[in-house]
């Protein structure tokens, strides 16, 4: 067995977990959908069948004011228990265990009825909370206990108290957000009274044989956050108060340090859990950017934690644990930490899913049943859309031949994986390759599909997933060899000078700027990454912060945008700020409202707000979007066979692997 520590049972005294894997809390959006709990039950059931030791639900509020949004889910009344039983019954039938997370948003509530310890507005919400009276504090503690008791009646094996990420309990603990002068504020002992009273009240209400997990903020990553001594003190008191397991919380949502994005090193925060190991005797859970059984096994075998929490990896692959147990980790669909279909959806109040697994949260709607009408299908282009369609169609029983003109599969992923912090795209390409072998997809590399092949080999249908080509710009001097496109740069076809202008500030422009200003990815150098972001492993400052290390500036870079809107406005909601901050650290010059005139030996001539200027650059890199590669579309249509377009060849807006993979999956179901 390759992962003995990961698969080792954990004895909690009154119950036993079958392994050391906790499926971390994720809000899916199904909690609020009509009929959503039936879909949620199917979602969790698949993960229980997939071998997870313990599941934790998305956050459920203990009362009305604690909701994250006006329509968010809460558990406060007996009549709400029934829908939760649908979930717990499904998980238990699958042999799993599940805890309900109780989360009070505090000042993070996206509604005008939010409450907090003090009347201090959050920088990430538009509403100023009201300050809770002492009576309201006591009522809220009672609400937590009531919610836990109802969860027990609903069949949950336990609850998780969300005490981190800057939500209400964290707001009480920190003097940053708690400026009260009564028994719930002021001294540290008073500020932590709130979480301790919550745990004591819950334990008294539910008895001894019920799991209580406390999500403890071990690293606030905000100014005036908790000190390490305070974290240790609270952990010890929580153990005495009756907590079964302490789960690690990293960073407040308002922190300007990335904690779960793909650019964060794998297992990059396990060190802080390890620091607490010698201080308490109850099990500790390591979290954040643990996405392979190898990294999880290392964390456990080295004694950094007693369990590992993985949330998004179970969106990517419900069978993660079973595949690890079968010693086939190469078959795991690895979470790439992109946030595009999960957190970005959640913050947009849409149903969460997964870029690399479009079935996530669609288990009752997106299923690949065996076909009764087997077809021979030619697929043109082995990018994300083509590979996804091929494996899903083949899994249904179709005979699929995938043609790729280049010597390797991957399409735009082969470019994306060269960007610092996006190395995880290698895992998706590996997964698709394994699935193609497993599902008997015939792959023909270095082979262009044309109409004669379609006719001669008697295909029934054609799927075009031939991707995109960079958009050219026709301006004076732009035929100069010093004007290149982003693909030429990433493919190593050109060498750039010391000063470069990037035309186009969408996702491609930002990626190209990052690529040019960080020759060696800090994501692959955890200690350097921590210093770059000002994270103090020595924990000598409150919140675990220190002065960030100055970033290298290997060349002068200008990132230019035609629009006058905010630079990077179209980037992901939960990651866009990271990309902007990275470029700022590397002193990239960002200009909006730019008109382009010409390129010559003096450089790039532009106009900004009616003022002409010349950027003395050695090269111009075109990142101004792309066009669909439809060169052979008419030829394919002339065969008389059905022709389907998916991915970039269908819509060539900003590169969108999420849409491409989902299109491939949905087409595979229809054919």
TrEMBL record:
One of its GO terms (molecular function) is 2,4-dienoyl-CoA reductase (NADPH) activity. It comes from Shewanella sediminis (strain HAW-EB3). Residues 376-653 form the FAD/NAD(P)-binding domain. Keywords: Flavoprotein, FMN, Iron, Iron-sulfur, Metal-binding, Oxidoreductase. Gene3D superfamilies: Aldolase class I, FAD/NAD(P)-binding domain, NAD(P)-binding Rossmann-like Domain. SUPFAM superfamilies: FAD/NAD(P)-binding domain, FMN-linked oxidoreductases. It holds the Pfam family Pyr_redox_2. In the N-terminal section; belongs to the NADH:flavin oxidoreductase/NADH oxidase family. PANTHER family: 2,4-DIENOYL-COA REDUCTASE (PTHR42917), 2,4-DIENOYL-COA REDUCTASE [(2E)-ENOYL-COA-PRODUCING] (PTHR42917:SF2). GO terms for biological process: fatty acid beta-oxidation, unsaturated, even number, reductase/isomerase pathway. It comes from the Bacteria. The keyword Oxidoreductase applies. This is NADH:flavin oxidoreductase/NADH oxidase. Its cofactor is [4Fe-4S] cluster; FMN. Residues 6-327 form the NADH:flavin oxidoreductase/NADH oxidase N-terminal domain. InterPro entries: Aldolase_TIM (IPR013785), FAD/NAD-bd_sf (IPR036188), FAD/NAD-binding_dom (IPR023753), NADH:flavin_oxidoreductase (IPR051793), OxRdtase_FMN_N (IPR001155).
